[in-house]
Each structure stands twice: as C-alpha cells, then as structure tokens.
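Task: sequence design from structure.
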C-alpha cells in the first residue's frame, strides 16, 4: 500500500468554494440523486479505504487525464469503438456521457457496496440490449466478456498511469495491488479475465494488439474532448494540455497504430502537469466522493491525505 500520503492544503474560502462547485459540476448527472456517498452509514465499499485505488481515484486531474487515456485505448478496438460511437450519446452530448461515466467510476470505487451492486446490475441490463456490426462486418455485443475485460483493463491502466506519471510514482507492489483490487468489480460488470497484476495487463495489451486499428473516430473524440466544457471556465485553458497529457500515456506502440505520434507532451508541459497533479492531490473537497466515503466509514475527512500510513 502507499506509505507517503499528501498533506492537506488549506485554501482561502472563495477558492475552496469555487473548487467545490467545479467538482460537483464534473459529476452532475440526471440520476445523481440516487448515489449518496455518505450513506448507508458504516457500509463498506467494494474496495477498502486503505487500498491503492481509493488514493488514485480521489485526484480530479487523474480522473480527467486517465479517463481520456482510457477512451483512446478503448476506441482502438473496432468492436468497442462501434458500440460506443453508435449506441451512446457521446457525439451528441459529450459532457453528459463523460459525467455519467465518471460518476459510475466513483460509485464503483467509493459507493456503499449495496448501491454499487445495484448500479452495476443496471449497467449490465443496458449492455445486454446493445449489439451491432462493425463497418467491416464483424458482429459485437456490449456484454461480450472479452470486450468488457478490454474496457476494464484500459480504464484501470489509464487512471493508474495518470497517477503514476503526474502525481506520485508507485512501486510495482503497489501497482499490482491496484490491479488486483479491481477484479471484483470487473466480474460484477460481467468480465471474466480482468488483469490482476501489471504483468497480466501487459499480456492483455500484447494479445489485443493485432486487433487494434486506426480510426478517424479517435481523432474526432480528441477534437470533442479538447473543447467540451469539462473543466470550469478558469481552468479551461489547461484542458488542451491535459488532453496532450492523456495521449502521452497511451503506450508508444499503440500511438503508432492510431497515428498519434507527436500529439503528446513536450518536456516543459510535463512539468506543468505534474505540478498540477501534485497540487490536486492535496486539496480536500467536502463534495468529493472519496471524502464522503471516508466519512461514511467513520474515518476522518482527510484520511486519504494526512501524513504517513
């Protein structure tokens, strides 16, 4: 597990209030009222508070950058790409889709087990209704375990890579803990072969490599996410930089397949993103699902931030 935890960073009230509002806006969804991270009091999540996952997912910069990385990698697989592009609202309403996806990740990691399991069952029902054919004529189903494993693996990789690169380097032991922590949730979603270690993740990437293809849809996705109103107005100029940071985390060989060479960070830009990631890791927001989940578990609000464990 992580030994060194970031110390909380006190902020002036106006700035704290602005960040609280921005954090709430990032997770807004029509059905958000169903997900109360403070209740039921004392009920455990699918993953324990002392996990690597709880510390990785608390960081808002990690969520944005890692989430974009994950989608780039997901869309490299033609069956997943067709399912996402043809059966979701991403092109028509990217903010709605990104917020719903982010909220689902927060419920999976921090929500009470009973609430997370109910949400995941709803996702599985929706997946069972999604099927189609790729432009090359290959049939797909959204509840195919192979595709569910790919989506889980790319998401797990994206968030971990963002934390490791832009917040705090993690040891191999910590990275292996992180992947193992996600297996239970992956199985609930319907996956059967989610990677339980970094070695298993790398094996899955190599095995899937022959199936991955370049597509204009990846470029269209990046064009959308660069300008979509994801971040609050004061931080909007940094959004283009964070998208470049996300591209930089895609494995180099996969960037070559997708035609994304040269779209990553320049050296000075990397320094700026790391500074932002470290800063974001010290800000305790009352509206954060991570903070509220700690309170539900009768832990201090700054449990994930304070001192050395």
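Answer:
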């Amino acid at each position: 597990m992580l030994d060194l935890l970031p110390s909380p960073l006190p902020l002036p009230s106006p700035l704290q209030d602005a960040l609280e509002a921005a954090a709430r806006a990032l997770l807004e969804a029509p059905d958000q009222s169903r997900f109360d991270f403070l209740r039921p009091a004392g009920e455990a999540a699918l993953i324990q508070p002392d996990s690597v996952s709880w510390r990785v997912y608390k960081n808002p910069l990690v969520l944005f950058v890692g989430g974009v990385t994950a989608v780039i990698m997901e869309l490299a697989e033609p069956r997943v790409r067709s399912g996402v592009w043809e059966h979701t609202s991403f092109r028509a309403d990217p903010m709605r889709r990104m917020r719903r996806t982010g909220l689902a990740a927060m419920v999976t990691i921090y929500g009470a087990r009973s609430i997370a399991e109910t949400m995941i069952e709803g996702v599985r029902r929706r997946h069972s209704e999604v099927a189609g054919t790729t432009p090359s004529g290959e049939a797909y189903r959204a509840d195919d375990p192979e595709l569910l494993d790919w989506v889980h693996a790319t998401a797990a990789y994206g968030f971990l890579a963002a934390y490791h690169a832009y917040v705090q380097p993690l040891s191999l032991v910590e990275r292996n803990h992180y992947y193992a922590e996600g297996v239970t949730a992956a199985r609930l979603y319907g996956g059967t072969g989610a990677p339980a270690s970094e070695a298993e993740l790398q094996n899955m990437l190599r095995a899937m490599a022959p199936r991955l293809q370049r597509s204009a849809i990846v470029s269209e996705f990046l064009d959308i996410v660069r300008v979509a109103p994801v971040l609050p107005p004061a931080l909007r100029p940094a959004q283009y930089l964070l998208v470049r940071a996300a591209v930089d985390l895609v494995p180099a060989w996969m960037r070559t397949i997708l035609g994304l060479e040269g779209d990553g960070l320049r050296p000075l830009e990397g320094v700026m993103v790391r500074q932002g990631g470290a800063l974001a890791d010290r800000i305790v927001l009352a509206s954060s699902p991570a903070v509220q989940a700690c309170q539900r578990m009768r832990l201090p609000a700054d449990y994930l931030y304070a001192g050395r464990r």
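The longest strand covers residues 131-133.
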